[in-house]
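Worked Example 4.2. Consider the chain below.
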Amino acid sequence: MLTVLKIQVGRRNGIRIIRLTGPLDSTTHKEFKSLMDPLVDTPGMRIVLDCENLTYAGSTEILLLGQYHHRMAQNQGGLGIAALNNRITQTLEQIGLGQMLHLYPTIEAAIAAMPSS
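Applying the procedure from the previous section yields the following C-alpha cells:
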C-alpha cells in the first residue's frame, strides 16, 4: 500500500494541474498544505486537482478542500476536483461538500469549466 503522497504539478491552458497519487491523510497533510496554501491565496489562480490516483482522503483533508474552494472564490480564482473515486465522492456528498465543491468526472471537463483568467 502506498503511504506517501506523490504530487506532480503541471500547467495546461494557464491552469495549474496538480496530480495526486496515494493517500491524502494526516501523514501527507503537511506536504499537500505547503504546496497549496500559497497557490490558493494567489489572486485569479485556477487549479484542477487530478484525483484519479488519489487512494484515500481523510476528514481533515476533505474539509481543507472546502476551505481552499472558499479562499479561491474570494480571490477570483477557481478550484476544480477531477476524477475522484466513488468512495471519496460519497464521503463529500454525505458531509454536504459535494454540492459546494466543483467535482468533474475528468480533467478535461474540469479544465473546460474553469473561469477565464
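Helices lie at 29-40, 59-74, 86-94, 107-113. The chain is about 40% helix and 30% strand. Compare this with Example 4.1 before moving on.
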